[in-house]
Design goal:
Strand 1, helix 2 and strand 2 (82-85) form a beta-alpha-beta unit. This protein is mainly alpha-helical. The protein has four helices and two strands; from the N terminus they run αβαβαα.
C-alpha cells in the first residue's frame, strides 16, 4: 500500500474550559489554520478533495460538522466535504490517521500507468 506524508501543518491553540477562547466558536477557530495553509501554498485550495478535522467534545451551537463549517469559513470551495472526528484527547491524531488512510486507499485503488498503456 502507498504511503502518505505530512508536508505541512498548522494547529489551533489549546484552550481551557471557560478560558480566553471560550467565546470563540470552534468553526471560526478551526478556519484559521486552514486559511494559513492555503496562504502558505498557492493553488492548494483548488486541489483539496476533503478536510478531516479533530474536534473534541463539541456541544450546543458547536455540535455540528465543524470541519465543513471551518473549510467554508476558510474560503475553500463548497464542493469540498469535511469530516469532524471526535476521539476526545486523540481527535487530532485520529483525524490525521483517517486522512492518511483515505489517501493511501485512493492511491492504491487508482489505475496504474501500465493498465492505461495496454
Amino acid at each position: 500500500m502507498a504511503e502518505a506524508f505530512i508536508c505541512d501543518y498548522v494547529r489551533t491553540p489549546i484552550g481551557r474550559y471557560a478560558g480566553a477562547l471560550a467565546s470563540v466558536r470552534a468553526d471560526d477557530l478551526a478556519a484559521i489554520p486552514i486559511r494559513q495553509l492555503v496562504a502558505r501554498h498557492p493553488g492548494l485550495a483548488a486541489k483539496v478533495e476533503e478536510v478531516f478535522l479533530g474536534c473534541a467534545n463539541q456541544a450546543g451551537e458547536d455540535n455540528r460538522n465543524v470541519a465543513r463549517m471551518a473549510l467554508l469559513l476558510a474560503g475553500l470551495p463548497d464542493t469540498v466535504p469535511g469530516a469532524t472526528v471526535n476521539r476526545l484527547c486523540a481527535s487530532g491524531m485520529e483525524a490525521i490517521a483517517a486522512a492518511a488512510r483515505a489517501i493511501r486507499r485512493a492511491i492504491s485503488s487508482a489505475p496504474s500507468q501500465a493498465a492505461w498503456s495496454r
